[in-house]
Amino acid sequence: MSVNGKLLSVAVTAVTALGLVCVGPAVAAPTTVSGDGGNRVGVVQGDGVASVRQGALDAPLFRQHENVKQIALTGNRVGILTDAGVVWVKEGGLSAGWVRESTNVKQLALAGDRIGVVKAGGEAYVKDGGLGAAWVLEARNVNELELSGDRIGVVTGVGVASVKQGGLGAAWVRQSVNVVDIDLSGTRIGLFQANGAAWVKEGALTAAWVKEADHVIQLELSGNRIGVLQDTGVAQVKQGALNAPWAQQSDNTIQIALSGHRIGILKGSGAAHVKEGALDAPWVLQAERVTELALS
After folding, report:
1. Domain 5-295 classified CATH 1.20.120.450?
2. What is the pLDDT of residue 150?
C-alpha cells in the first residue's frame, strides 16, 4: 500500500478520533507491507532504524539500516527507502551487502525478482532479474506502484487504477476510477476508493469486482486471505472465497499486514504484533515504538 495524501489524512483523522498514541508518522498503509508466505518480519522504529527477523516469530531482530522511511521484503531480498530518497536492496542473508538501486524515490516495491520505484516526479520504473538489471519506465503521473508475480499495478494522480500482466512491456488494462489504493496477490486484485469501499476480483484482469467492505483505509491481500483496516481502527481478515465471513483481529489498529498464514498489526501505541496459523491464533509481540511493519 502506498503513502498518499488522502490516505494519510484519513489515517490521522482516525487515529485522532480513537485517541491513539502514534510514536511516529501516522501511516495507516505503508507500501508493500504484505508478502507471499515468507518467514521474515521487518519493522521501522521511531528513530528510523529498520530491523528484520527471520524464521520463528521470537527469533532475534537484526538491525539493517538507519534513517529509513520505508522497508520492503520479498523472498531473500530486503529493500529500504531512506529519508533522503535513496533505495538500497540486499539479496541473501540478513548480513548481505547493500546495492544502491535508485535515488529521488518516493516509493519502493518488491516482489520476487522484480524491484519497482516511483520517483518524486511520478515516474514508475520496474526492473526484473538481478539487482543490477536495467530499469524500464512503466508509467508516469503515478501515486502508487504495486508488484505481484508477473503483474504490475499503478494508481495515477487522478485516481485511475490499471494493471498489466506478463512482461514489463505488456499493455495496461484499466481497472477502476476514484481509486485511493491498489493491492495485488496472485490472481487477485484489490482496491479501495475515495468513498472507503473496498473491492476485490479474482482471475483475469477483466473479472468482475466483488464488494468486500466499507469505511476502509487500508486493504491487504496475500494468497486466499483479505485484510482490511477500517476508519474505526478495527482490523479484520477473511480466508477463502471472496464472500467468506470476516474475523475481527484487533482494535486500536493503525496498520495491518498479511503474508501466507501470518497476520501482522501495528497498534496506535507503536506495538507491533504478528500471529501465525489460524485466524484466531495468539499474537506475538514483535517490537515497540514501531512506525511500519512489513512481512515477506
Report:
1. no
2. 98
